[in-house]
């Protein structure tokens, strides 16, 4: 069994999924590998549970839930109705288990069946212009109930804002132009970049997807209504709206909003010492200047410790550059550097 899992993983399958196919948990595989023999020591139950339904009771459950009166209802509705008649055949969970074993757990309504949403594929950035993240947020306008839209594109590795626009509506064509211009400024080559976004209509518009395909830019999408799948853009928008100079009310006009965002982006890229990248600016990291800055800081700290070693109980502050940044890392990957 372990050999079969190893072959599957070597062929590109995920270990957790390979274990699921073999009917074991990933931790079970880890325990087996820890033993010298590596044998399957699972014994399993030797007797049947005393509270197991008898064959006649199982038939009764199946007959009731498939009867014309109850066949359109869920076990959660059937059990109370039976109780009102003084009847108890099994609990909701037992009925669900019996139906599952009989292959009768199906979506019975005319509405769309629930869909399983898989986590986005893990993205890894080891330098600038490898992984970008973008999103749209609202800015209050002078008209009650209407908003300006702030489009922002950021580099996940450096945290630099590589593109932004403010418009009065959301549109895939506007997003396509924004990203096309950002790619031109950054000199993006084909198959160099992956851009991540949520599942909004502008993000999946035909014009934008065609533009990205023409540019040779790969796409990645969050799960519907899961903001944590796009943490870098969400963190950037939080920084935008919690700046002291961010208006407490509405922007007077779209020109005012654009002027404010322009000053914010300049501050964020060139002055803001970002905590997630060792307190250098996104511009310094994006342009390759940060390593020399961090090296000088480390040298200053080492010299300070040599002058007064009694003031240092351990190592000096960690000024080592952050080499890898993950977007939506797998659960077994360390969470470091995975948030903005």
Observed structural traits:
single chain, 340 residues, Nucleotidyltransferase, domain 5, 5-stranded mixed sheet, 7 strands, extended, disordered C terminus
Describe this protein's structure.
- The model is unreliable at 335-340 (pLDDT under 50).
- It is built from 12 helices and 7 strands.
- The longest helix has 18 residues, at 290-307.
- Among the domains are: 2-34, no CATH class; 70-105, no CATH class; 123-269, Nucleotidyltransferase, domain 5 (2-Layer Sandwich), CATH 3.30.420.10.
- The chain starts with a helix and ends in a 13-residue tail after the last strand.
- It has helices spanning 2-10, 15-22, 26-34, 55-65, 75-84, 92-101, 172-186, 206-215, 231-241, 254-270, 282-286, 290-307, and strands at 123-125, 131-140, 147-155, 161-167, 194-197, 218-221, 325-327.
- The protein has a 5-stranded mixed sheet with strand order 4-3-2-5-6, sandwiched between helices. The protein has a two-stranded antiparallel sheet with strand order 1-7.
- It is an alpha/beta fold.
- Strand 2 and strand 3 form a beta hairpin.
């Amino acid at each position: 069994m372990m050999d079969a899992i190893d072959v599957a993983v070597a062929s590109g399958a995920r270990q957790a999924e390979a274990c699921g196919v073999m009917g074991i948990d990933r931790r079970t595989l880890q325990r087996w590998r820890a033993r010298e023999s590596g044998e399957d020591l699972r014994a399993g139950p030797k007797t049947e549970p005393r509270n197991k339904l008898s064959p006649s009771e199982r038939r009764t459950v199946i007959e009731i839930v498939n009867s014309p009166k109850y066949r359109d209802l869920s076990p959660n509705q059937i059990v109370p109705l039976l109780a009102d008649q003084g009847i108890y055949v099994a609990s909701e969970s037992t009925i669900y288990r019996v139906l599952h074993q009989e292959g009768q757990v199906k979506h019975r309504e005319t509405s769309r069946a629930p869909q399983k949403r898989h986590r986005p594929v893990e993205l890894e950035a080891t330098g600038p212009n490898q992984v970008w993240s973008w999103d749209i947020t609202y800015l209050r306008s002078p008209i009650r109930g209407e908003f300006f839209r702030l489009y922002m594109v950021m580099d996940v590795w450096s945290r630099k804002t590589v593109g932004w626009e403010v418009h009065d509506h959301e549109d895939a064509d506007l997003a396509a132009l924004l990203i096309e211009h950002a790619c031109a400024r950054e000199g993006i080559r084909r198959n160099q970049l992956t851009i991540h976004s949520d599942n909004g209509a502008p993000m999946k518009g035909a014009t934008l997807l065609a533009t990205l395909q023409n540019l040779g830019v790969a796409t990645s999408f969050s799960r519907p209504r899961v903001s944590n799948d796009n943490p870098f853009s969400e963190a950037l928008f939080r920084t935008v709206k919690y700046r002291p100079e961010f208006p407490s009310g509405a922007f007077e006009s779209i020109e005012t909003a654009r002027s404010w965002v322009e000053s914010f982006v300049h501050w964020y890229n060139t002055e803001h010492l970002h905590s997630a990248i060792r307190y250098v600016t996104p511009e310094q990291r994006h342009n390759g200047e940060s390593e020399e800055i961090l090296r000088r800081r480390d040298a200053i700290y080492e010299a300070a410790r040599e002058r007064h070693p009694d003031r240092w109980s351990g190592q000096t502050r960690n000024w080592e550059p952050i080499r890898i940044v993950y977007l939506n890392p797998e659960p077994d990957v360390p969470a470091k550097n995975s948030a903005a």
